[in-house]
Amino acid sequence: YNEYKSYLRKGSEMRRTCYTKQFINDTIGDGIFACEKIVKCTNVMKTDHFISFIDKSSTKSYCNSCYSESDNLKRCSVCKHVRYCSEKCQKKNWKIHKYECPNLKELTDVEFIPLLIRLTALLHSSPELRNAYGLNDMMKHTEMENQKISEYYMLLINGVKEIVKAENVDPSLCFNIYSKLIVNLFTLEDGQLRSIGCALIPSFTKLNHSCSPNCVLSFKGGTAYITAIKDIPKGAQLTISYISLPQSFLQRKAELHQQFNFKCECDMCTLQRKQGVDTMLMRQCSSCKEHCHPTVYEEKQELYCTVCKSPFTSSPILSDVALKNMERYDLNMTAVSHQDVVVVNHLVEQTEKLIVEGAWEPALRTGLKATVGLMEWAQDFPSTGLFIAKLAKLYGLQQGESRSSSKDNLMKALQLLDIALKCLSAALPRKHDLLCEVKQLYDSTLQELAVLQK
Questions:
Q1: What is the Cα–Cα distance from 296 to 316, expressed in whole angstroms?
Q2: Confidence (pTM)
Q3: CA triplet 110, 113, 114: central angle to 5 degrees?
Q4: Model pLDDT for residues 266-314, shown as the tens digit of each residue
Q5: d(CA 11, CA 42)
């Protein structure tokens, strides 16, 4: 418990002088670098200066200012669309909402307008906001003829015209804003790390990507935080991940190119290119029957057996037999599966599905298999701590056949909560909703175990 308090105290410190912005090159632009050694668990940056929109599935449940979840939200009296938990939150958000409130008032189907179009319209109609939030200094998607982008062109322009109710919409300005937003927006998360919208955070857009980042982004109330999840030496660059991790080399490459149009040159990708092997995959060759980390041919997007050099004709998540067994909750899988990140991610998805279905025992067995890989590749990510905390809850939900088995379940739950707290307290700011909830669960489980031991 004292160890957790130590983590929380470190996480509450705000190091305002420990980083600086430096220009790297024309392709990458600027980066953020450490001016001194930064200790793991340190909250390096924080800001409440950002624009955020809540998506249509969450707008009726979350305050548009502090992002707290509530059943008693009050709608804006003018536009009748955005909602707030208090008058204080409404006044705080008015500095941004005032620019779009009159326009939203005229629309009957605001929830069906993509957030990117709403944000583009907001920035198009307000040079003041474009300057205040540093849009001119942001990098943009350079592949302007990319089909995925160009197919939204008319939708974008027509959508902006519909919102601002003006014919003098500048298509060039709209597309310039849009091309910057798609590579600079962050996913907005609630206190349970669920995605509820998007956020444009000017001071964080200079943080570059790494597939093995040393920092993570989180939100607490109306404030965004950057927390160091590793010790960062003086002069090193502060990095976050732009994509969900962990993933295989080819998966990461494809997603980064598609969404952000760049080739990752982080230490992890550089090492894997040099080795020519993806150490996050473990596959069985159909020719020689050996298990190996496959050789990667990056340009061909293909995998080959490292032992016999035969190509993997396909890269299944699991064999058909294993998938069939998994559907029956029969998970007698070999330990080698834990060395394959694709399989681990699949096990995580299956665990979440089983929890929703109420199949707690199979979910626990599946989740424990996934935890082995997660602790190897993503032990300091908040999502890992959340996943392990869910497994601990499953132990608590199981009723033991005897007093002894109930006590064993609670002890196993405490062990998992111990791991979850270390993951979360290393990556989240002090008094984050999720961190407080897991700490309370730890305390209540400890008390319950003490009662059984009497």
A1: 16
A2: 0.85
A3: 140
A4: 999 999 898 888 888 887 777 888 878 888 887 777 888 888 888 875 4
A5: 5
